[in-house]
Amino acid sequence: MKRFKQNLDGDHLSTHLDLDTRNALRDPDRKSGLSSMKVMGIFVAGLIVFSVLFSVNVVLRDPPSDAVFETSKARVLEVEHRKDSEDQFSESLDVPKDKLLRGLLTDGFDEGSCVSRYQSASYRKELPYRPSSYLISKLRSYEALHKRCGPYTESYNKTLEQLKSGYHTSSLDCNYVVWISFSGLGNRILTLASAFLYAVLTNRVLLVDPGVDMVDLFCEPFPEVSWFLPMDFPLKNQFDSLDQKSPHCYGKMLKKNSNFTNSDGSVMPSFVYLHLAHDYDDQDKLFFCSQDQTFLQKIPWLIMKTDNYFVPSLFLVPSFERELNNLFPRKETAFHFLGRYLFHPTNVVWGLITRYYKAYLEKADERIGIQIRVFDTGTGPFQHVFDQILACAVKENLLPEINRQDFIVSPLGTPKSKAVLMTSLSTGYFEKLRDMYWEHPTVTGEVIGIYQPSHEEYQQTEKLMHNRKAWTEMYLLSLTDVLVTSSWSTFGYVAQSLGGLTPWILYKPENRTAPDPPCQRAMSMEPCFHAPPFYDCKAKTGVDTGKLVPHVRHCEDMSWGLKLVDS
Predict the structure, then answer these.
(1) How many angstroms from the chain centroid is the CA of residue 276?
(2) Sheet of 482-486, strands arranged across
(3) What angle do CA 170, 196, 484 make, to 5 degrees?
(4) 204 phi/psi in degrees, rounded to 5
(5) CA angle 313–315–317, rounded 5-degree value
(6) 198: CB partners within 8 A, 6+ apart
(7) Distance (Å, rounded) from C-alpha 326 to C-alpha 184?
(8) In 444-463, which positions are buried (b, 16+ CB within 10 angstroms) versus exposed (e)?
(9) How far, in whole angstroms, is CA 367 from its chain's centroid?
(10) Section 91-112 average pLDDT
């Protein structure tokens, strides 16, 4: 209709011109006006012709490069790929050159089924840490073992028959450690890494109780054969009732001085329950003694329940010492490599991560993570906690001070932008910090953006969406450049270790007063083992296990805890 209207207008104009021409012939006084219009028309036409000729000359002399055509072609192909692909993420990022993380990961997975596995490297700065060749070799060996002995394989079915019988009567090709899904998400991630390392050290296959949400949160880390425990596993209905009073609990069996055999001495129990939770007792803690490990090697099925990151104490077991030194020449990289190998967000979680990162964090010159966990009772936010967070960030030059006198501060050159990612169950601290940097300019002229993905108000361990958000926020924190964490928080431990970040740790406030100094730089990026044993297995006496070797020290945030450091 628009084109049709233009044509009508054009015809109408032509009619007027013809009339003007005829009138000019009849009226000589109008002739001069017509001549002026003709001159102007000729001048405009000349400019148009000159412009066209000039453009043709430039194009012929300097035609578009092949790169332009290739770029256009690539964009067309990309659009077609977006229309046809079932993978909602594959177009958003090119797969990084080092998608295998210097050999830590193995190739051959279907990339669309778990996009994060190979794309996550594109969101991180390349770290100076390199996995040892021994660790890489050991992981490939474990993958072969898992493929041979995983769920529903011939070896698995054979071992399962002995488990059902209740007794272990002959040696088997495959032994197992079953990890029970227990506690909050941060604890589960740390304990699952611990259980996997124990499986590698003892040549066992790790099988994971899926619980209520593990399948929804984490991709399969091993090729071809699942790490999830089958739903028809015969002991599964006993998991909730297993505790220190259970007949198969290792600690209780030791208390009864059981020799773990039948009356004729010919058989062993088909499984042993390992209670390694925070409330475990002295007998349970003998798990960390070499002589007890020698016995446990004979048991085909170990069922483990723990809420502790117990890796530091594995480094104190003499029979594991040499192997661990070969696996991790740099001790503080233990969880970093285990976590990057095992924990890949599922596509639904990866979508939450990447959308938020691109919207709020990607374009900043620097990303700062602040993880807040408050253990005080009562309704927050608490002013002393906010004061402590701000004091730490400003004192350590993570955030600039504000200028309360001037309305505008003009920086020299382009102002630097900083994106602050805050995680907390409450919005109070986020709102205070956001308003402060909105209402006042910074003394440096830097532009500060404050962001918080969620505010769940209280921990909801069994809720699926709550745990999706928790996993998303841990991962987003691990993508920051610098990190501030709260004392005692496994949420923060996961973020710092996955990201290879040595955090500033906020001291735990006492008497609702902000500590001075407010925070301390951690000795390493490793998590803290909150409930380690203090026992010398050889001397059979108590000992300070934080002073036995240089690479196992007491934690900064928990004086009795243990963590791995590098001398």
Answers:
(1) 26
(2) 447-451, 417-423, 366-371, 482-486, 504-506, 519-521
(3) 165
(4) -110, 165
(5) 80
(6) 177, 204, 304, 314
(7) 32
(8) bbbbbbbbbbbbeeeeeeee
(9) 15
(10) 81
Q: Is the dihedral of CA 340, 341, 342, 347 positive or negative?
A: positive
Distance of CA 145 to the CA centre of its chain: 27
Q: What would the 3-class secondary structure string for 62-119 be?
A: CCCCHHHHHHHHHHHHHHHHHHHCCCCCCCCCCCCCCCCCCCCCCCCCCHHHCCHHHH
End-to-end CA separation in angstroms for the chain: 80
**Measured between alpha carbons, how far is 204 from 146 in angstroms, rounded to an integer?**
9
Q: How far apart are CA 310 and CA 318, in angstroms?
A: 15
Token output for 540: 């059979």
The one-letter amino acid code at 487 reads: S
Cβ neighbours of residue 9 closer than 8 Å, sequence gap 6 or more: none
- Residue 123 DSSP one-character state: G
- pLDDT for 41 equals 52
* Confidence category of residue 437, pLDDT binned at 50, 70, 90: very high
Q: Are 466 and 360 in contact (CB under 8 A)?
A: no
Tell me the domains of the chain and their CATH numbers: 109-331 (no CATH), 347-564 (3.40.50.11350)
- In degrees, to the nearest 5, what angle opens at C-alpha 219 toward C-alphas 213 and 224? 125
Give, for 333, the enclosing helix (H) or strand (E): none
Q: Compute the distance between CA of residue 465 and CA of residue 480 in angstroms, rounded to an integer.
A: 23
Q: Is 221 helix (H, G, I), strand (E, B) or coil?
A: coil
Mean pLDDT, all residues of the chain? 85
Give the model confidence (pLDDT) of 510-553 as tens digits. 989 999 999 999 999 999 999 999 999 999 999 999 999 999 99
**Which among 315, 395, 343, 334 has a CA at the least distance from the CA of 525?**
334
Distance CA 201, CA 296 (A): 13
Average pLDDT score over residue span 30-59: 45
